[in-house]
Specification:
The chain is of the alpha+beta class and about 400 residues long. The protein folds into 3 domains: about 170 residues, Alpha-Beta Plaits (2-Layer Sandwich); about 55 residues, DNA polymerase, domain 1 (Orthogonal Bundle); about 140 residues, DNA polymerase, Y-family, little finger domain (Dna Ligase, domain 1). Helices cover about 45% and strands about 20% of the residues. It has 17 helices and 12 strands. It has a 5-stranded mixed beta sheet. The protein is globular. It starts with a helix and ends in a 22-residue tail after the last helix. Monomer.
Length: about 400
């Protein structure tokens, strides 16, 4: 049954953050929520959906934007905040599937076809992805689910803002052919004008022509490309970029106490330790990421004397970093905790002398085998019992 549902809906997700820069500003400044916001002065870099409803568009001149929306709040861009938010979202993407292809700072393709046995059909995975991004980063995201990257991207665009749109495999052409030609990849103003001049307004109009007929309108290369897309053919595959430079995980807590954050951090250390060893790597630097009750973020890191593959070493360092922020956590509360391992090396752990203060790797290896065979919850820390903490299953 699950396989049939996967086949019906496809397994390619296109995830796209909504009005990204403006959404980060509204998230970080509660007084901006529900108000028209313009990021950038001379040129609009991003506009909130409240501003877009008044005609404000990206790349529009600032004066024109203010004429359309005189009550807009104009804020200068904070690129460090946007990069940090993007990194947090992409960590969730890569925690969902190893097959992630970033298109820009705020969008990516994800292929979840290999998760059928582990996580089930693609539709619940898409719903969970949206929930995690909202809970863990405080940002709205739209997701399209389809058989091909092109259809998934069109679906996510039509799902905005803050929505999920699924294109069933047996309904692809019905969905596609009703769209205007501007929705075809590669159709800009010039190509659209050529298509309109030939009385081609919808994707269905384009699909009815032969490649030769279409090439006479827009040129040979564009003609064959558009004919393929208009008939539902897209040979692109979601292939990840270069090998990752870090391994991380994070968890949203609500407004939690220091003790709750400590418990969550321990479970996250268990998780990233398993993933690191499964990849046959060691880590030289441990970083923790915190988000306080007002969405303010904090990052702390420590580089180890030598690379390690030991969960106990990782957790000791991570907890020490957390302890250094205890006063802030107790004053502000904490809504998210994360841990990341960097300085990754794929040459295995360095051999150490018996007297060195390093945990016995046999324990980690044994726990890894138990988790791989029976699931992460098969062996749990005593401190987690009765606390409602359920570690997520590994997906990569």
């Amino acid at each position: 049954m699950e396989g049939a549902e996967q086949d019906r809906f496809g397994s390619i997700l296109h995830a796209d953050l909504d009005a990204f820069y403006a959404s980060v500003e509204q998230r970080d400044d509660p007084t901006l929520r529900g108000r028209p916001v313009i990021v950038g002065g001379g040129v609009v870099l991003s506009g909130s959906y409240e501003a877009r409803a008044r005609g404000v568009r990206t790349a529009m001149g600032g004066r024109q934007a203010l004429r359309l929306c005189p009550d807009a709040v104009v804020v200068p861009p904070r690129f460090d905040a946007y990069v940090a938010a993007s990194k947090a979202v992409f960590e969730i993407f890569r925690d969902t599937t190893p097959l992630v292809r970033g298109l820009s700072i705020d969008e990516a393709f994800l292929d979840v076809s290999g998760l059928r046995r582990l996580r089930g059909p693609a539709l619940p995975i898409a719903r969970e992805l949206r929930r995690r991004v909202q809970d863990e980063t405080g940002l709205p995201i739209s997701v399209g689910l389809a058989r091909t990257p092109y259809l998934a991207k069109v679906a996510s665009t039509l799902a905005k803002p803050d929505g999920l749109l699924v294109v069933p495999v047996d309904g692809e052409l019905q969905f596609l052919h009703a769209l205007p030609v501007e929705r075809l990849w590669g159709v800009g103003d010039i190509t659209a004008a050529k298509l309109h001049a030939a009385h081609l307004r919808t994707v269905a109009d384009v699909a009815r022509l032969t490649p030769g007929e279409l090439s006479a309108v827009v040129g040979r290369a564009a003609g064959h490309h558009l004919h393929a897309l208009a008939n539902g053919h897209d040979s692109r595959r979601v292939e990840p970029g270069p090998s990752r430079r870090s391994i991380g995980a994070q968890h949203a807590l609500g407004r939690a106490s220091f003790a709750d954050a400590d418990l969550a951090l321990l479970a996250l250390c268990d998780k990233v330790g398993r993933r690191m060893r499964r990849a046959g790597r060691t880590a030289a630097t441990v970083t923790i990421r915190l988000r306080f009750g007002d969405f303010r973020r904090s990052t702390s890191s420590r580089t180890l004397p030598r690379p390690t593959e030991s969960t106990s070493v990782i957790s000791d360092v991570a907890r020490a970093l957390l302890e250094s922020r205890r006063a802030d956590i107790e004053r502000e509360g904490i809504t998210l905790v994360g841990v990341a391992l960097s300085g990754l090396d794929d040459h295995g752990a360095q051999l150490v002398l018996p007297l060195d203060d390093e945990a016995d790797p046999v324990l980690d290896q044994t726990l890894d085998r138990v988790a791989a065979r029976f699931g992460n919850a098969a062996v749990r820390r005593g401190s987690h019992l009765g606390r409602g903490w359920e570690p997520r299953s590994p997906v990569q």
